[in-house]
Design a protein that fits this description.
alpha+beta
Length: 441
């Protein structure tokens, strides 16, 4: 097997042994790589420059059932089979899908090194549909899931507000029932909502009662062409093709049947959803770091300065080595995570891995920051230029905040991780303590 540029591929794709990947995973990787390369990766830079991905690309992915892999594993087998979806790319049956397949999918979707184009296709599907599947009533699922799962209608996840980002409990958008009890009237604003511009619906966090987390609920809110809803595109530093959106809601009338689960349980539902989101971000961002570092490594083997190639300079090798050590350590952690997710039940994973998932997502941001900075510095002036040989390094470096802020900003997640670990420790300690009246042996 021909070896890739150093750091360009995870070790298992360089032919090194791994305990994680079965034949089904390796077959899936090959099929997934071929499909994504043809339909996304080779065009991603052009689409990111243009600021949008053509609509027919979404339809190609939907027709091939290639949006389904963005859902949490295990997949909603009963629903998928009802809709005639039995396998993906002819390699994996939906009932055999696990989180290792998911990890491969996300890694392949990130091969361009750009987050915008893949996010334009999968973000709403990945994060807005799961709460409906997990907590929505039967009537709500029957009304919306057929169109959403087949991507006939698009959906986004709408949590963040101008004054409430990582502080989800501070959400101010209200949903007040009408006097007859048949509708909610929604008022407020949502900001930095990925895919919002194209979405017919939003899985939206709203305040249905008093302050704090106990007052939050999730509501399926109509968006496109719905009275009282206005949306506009937000220009951000990277992710140009992802459709980042500002949403204003003015007396928006929503049927009470669109409530997802129970009133007052929104915070619980959101936190459960965050674990999948943060792991997906961590995987994609780690691939982005890999693209940046591999591009820099290749450049250093070609570029000459002071009479020899950059790779012959000890200081250059030192910088590549430091970034590479961070990258491969992060990837090893990611592989361990997806394996654990594949083996643990959902309720166990939420408890045991919730804090660590936050930590892994935060660490991914730190790693891509180091790898992107390394790439820009080694590309020199080319890395500070928005076109030409260093364009990929410049773009990835510009997207670093998009890795460290969404899904919970870095400092908040670092703190959350430790608090969750401490909580788990005390919980186990209490379980081990015996009542005082029981005599000692």
């Amino acid at each position: 097997m021909a070896k890739a540029i150093p750091f360009a591929e995870p070790p298992y794709l360089n032919g090194l042994p791994s305990p994680y990947y079965k034949e089904t995973h390796l077959a899936w990787q090959k099929a997934c790589h071929a499909f994504v390369q043809e339909n996304l990766t080779q065009h991603a830079m052009d689409w990111e420059r243009d600021g949008s991905v053509p609509e027919q690309v979404l339809q190609k992915f939907a027709a091939a059932n290639m949006l389904v892999p963005s859902l949490p594993a295990p997949l909603p087998v009963e629903w998928l089979k009802r809709l005639g979806i039995h396998e993906i790319l002819g390699t994996v049956k939906v009932e055999d899908w696990d989180y290792i397949h998911t990890g491969i999918f996300v890694d392949e979707m990130g091969r361009s090194g750009l987050q915008g184009p893949p996010a334009s296709l999968t973000t709403g599907y990945a994060y807005a549909i799961p709460p409906i599947l997990k907590f929505g009533s039967k009537q709500l699922q029957e009304r919306f899931l057929p169109d959403l799962l087949r991507a006939k209608k698009r959906i986004c996840i709408a949590i963040t507000e101008p004054e409430a980002g990582s502080d989800v409990a501070g959400i101010q958008t209200t949903a007040i029932k009408t006097a007859d009890g048949n509708h909610y009237i929604v008022n407020g604003m949502k900001k930095w909502i990925t895919n919002g511009l194209w979405s017919s619906y939003a899985t939206m966090a709203v305040r249905t009662s008093g302050p704090g987390p106990a007052g939050l609920s999730l509501l399926l809110v109509p968006l496109l062409n719905h009275p009282g809803v206005s949306m506009r595109h937000i220009k951000v530093g990277g992710h140009r093709a992802s459709g980042t959106t500002f949403i204003e809601l003015d007396e928006v009338k929503v049927p009470v049947e669109n409530l997802i689960g129970e009133e007052g349980q929104g915070m619980k539902y959101i936190m459960t959803n965050f674990n999948h989101e943060r792991l997906i971000i961590a995987i994609g961002v780690t691939r982005q770091a890999r693209v940046a570092l591999a591009a820099a490594f290749e450049y250093c083997m070609q570029r000459e300065a002071f009479g020899k190639t950059l790779i012959e300079q000890p200081v250059v090798r030192h910088r590549l080595a430091k970034a590479g050590a961070l990258l491969e350590s992060q990837w090893a952690w990611i592989e361990q995570f997806v394996y654990q997710m594949a083996k643990l039940k959902k309720v166990e994973a939420d408890v045991e891995l919730g804090g660590l998932t936050a930590l892994a997502k935060a660490q991914a941001g730190i790693v891509v920051d180091e790898c992107a900075r390394c790439a820009v510095l080694l590309f020199g002036g080319n890395g500070f230029t928005t076109t030409g040989r260093g364009e990929i390094a410049e773009r990835i470096y510009r997207e670093v905040p998009g890795a460290r802020i969404p899904g919970g900003s870095e400092d908040v997640l670092l703190d959350l991780a430790v608090k969750q670990l401490v909580k788990n420790y005390y919980s186990r300690t209490r379980m081990l303590q015996r009542p005082k009246e029981i005599s000692k042996l």
